[in-house]
Design brief:
By secondary structure, the protein is an all-alpha fold. It has 18 helices and no strands. GO terms for molecular function: metal ion binding.
């Protein structure tokens, strides 16, 4: 009879400790990766409420400065820009980030310029076919670039030609709004390699150096937040310093302009989000950096416990950005991607995340992404899910099908506007007597 030897107690404890640490690390990474993907989409959906408003108009139409998506959504202001969407629906910002994200799930590697160009070409004509959502919110620069004849064969070259024709001065936020998934898929790769991927993918549509460095910084911050490398404001500044050094100084004509947006003297007030040039790439970048630093500061000063504070931070910062209006959905989308990577999915408010349209679909894809990265158990085979294909596993829309979809959407939009306007009129009828009664009471008190 062979006598079995039991391993020493210390060895068992060491093994358990290593397993526990590994499980904790994987759980943390999963929470932050999913957090970034969902938080960015939520920022997009909440920011839509005030997109293109001034802050004054935002306060007028949403006086409580509170937004909810679940169970009873906050009503939209009744106009076509908002009512073309359903409550909790993200916009083109998230759609474009999903083109990058789905490309990775389809191939197992970050997208090539040509693959993203093909996906953008399909999106411009068909929308996101996996969800049968039309292309809403197409920016001028992206539209001009993607519709150019030889775009799919030479995306960066076409992007540069279009930019040059526009006077070499166009620096909108259409690249920075989509870049955060790159930081997630590069989480186990080197920082400079991450910077390079961000630069390459930005240039698929936006070659202006200001657009490119915005993408480099945001992508780097998302990666570092997920990795747990951002703990202090100093960590943020040091990463930005490394990104600037890596990028070099030749293409950036005005470094002071970048620094003013990264470190505005008056915080978010200094970014003047609802004033001229609301779609400027540095404004969206500044929102992400300033909000991250504010979150770090608040956690350092947390008195009610870090978990309690985390649950407040995301909602309050995204609401603040939304009430500042301007290009609010993009600003909140960029900030959301960074904050979600820093705070994690658990910090996202339930009355937002449970009301996100297509939220279950996105959660499933985020889980697949985590499996593909190896931070969740399971097996993922790139390309197996038809949703990840360029046409989302569906045939391109025919002209008749496209016209029918727009006709249905137009009818639904008008119905929403009419319903919301009627509700606002009814509320006004009730509020007028209350206002007269309040004024009368104040006059009696005074005289």
């Amino acid at each position: 009879m062979t006598e079995t030897t039991q391993p020493p107690t210390t060895t068992i404890l060491q093994t358990l400790n290593q397993t526990s640490q590994t499980n904790l690390l994987r759980t943390t990474l999963t929470d932050r990766i999913i957090g970034s993907l969902l938080a960015s989409a939520l920022g997009d959906a909440i920011g839509l409420y005030t997109e293109f408003f001034t802050s004054v108009k935002a306060r007028s139409h949403y006086p409580t400065a509170k937004f909810t998506l679940h169970p009873t959504p906050t009503p939209f202001y009744p106009d076509k820009h908002r009512c073309v969407h359903e409550y909790g629906e993200w916009t083109d910002d998230t759609d474009h980030s999903l083109l990058i994200f789905l490309s990775f799930l389809h191939s197992g590697i970050p997208p090539t310029q040509e693959d993203l160009a093909k996906r953008l070409k399909v999106w411009v004509s068909n929308g996101l076919l996996a969800l049968n959502s039309p292309p809403l919110g197409l920016g001028r620069l992206v539209g001009d670039v993607v519709r150019t004849r030889d775009y799919e064969e030479n995306p960066e070259g076409v992007a540069r030609r279009v930019w040059e024709k526009m006077g070499k001065d166009a620096a909108p936020n259409g690249a920075v709004m989509r870049t955060h998934p790159l930081g997630l898929m590069m989480v186990f790769q080197g920082e400079e390699e991450t910077f390079e991927v961000a630069k390459r993918i930005a240039c698929v549509t936006h070659v202006d150096a200001r657009c490119v460095i915005s993408c480099v910084i945001v992508t780097g911050l998302v990666r570092s937040c997920v990795r747990g490398e951002v703990l202090r404001e100093k960590d943020v500044d040091e990463l930005i310093g490394r990104a600037k050094t890596w990028f070099g100084s030749e293409e950036i004509k005005d470094w002071e302009d970048l620094d003013r947006h990264l470190n505005p003297a008056d915080g978010l007030d200094g970014l003047k989000l609802d004033e001229n040039g609301i779609g400027y790439t540095y404004k969206a970048l500044g929102c992400g950096v300033v909000c991250l630093k504010m979150a770090i500061r608040r956690l350092e000063q947390a008195k009610g416990g870090v978990l309690v504070e985390k649950e407040k931070i995301f909602e309050e910062l995204i609401t603040d950005l939304t009430m500042r209006a301007g290009d609010a959905d993009t600003n909140a989308c960029v900030a959301g991607g960074i904050l979600g990577a820093f705070l994690g999915y658990a910090a996202l408010p339930g009355h937002w995340k449970y009301g996100l349209k297509h939220g279950d679909w996105l959660m499933k894809k985020a889980g697949d992404f985590c499996v593909a990265l190896g931070v969740m158990d399971g097996t993922y085979t790139p390309g197996e899910d038809p949703d990840t294909a360029i046409y989302g596993g569906k045939a391109p829309l025919t002209k008749d099908e496209d016209e029918m979809r727009w006709a249905v959407l137009s009818g639904a939009t008008q119905t929403r506007i009419t319903k919301l306007q009627a509700e606002r009129d009814a509320e006004a009828v009730v509020e007028k007597p209350k206002m007269r009664e309040m004024i009368s009471g104040m006059l009696k008190m005074k005289f």
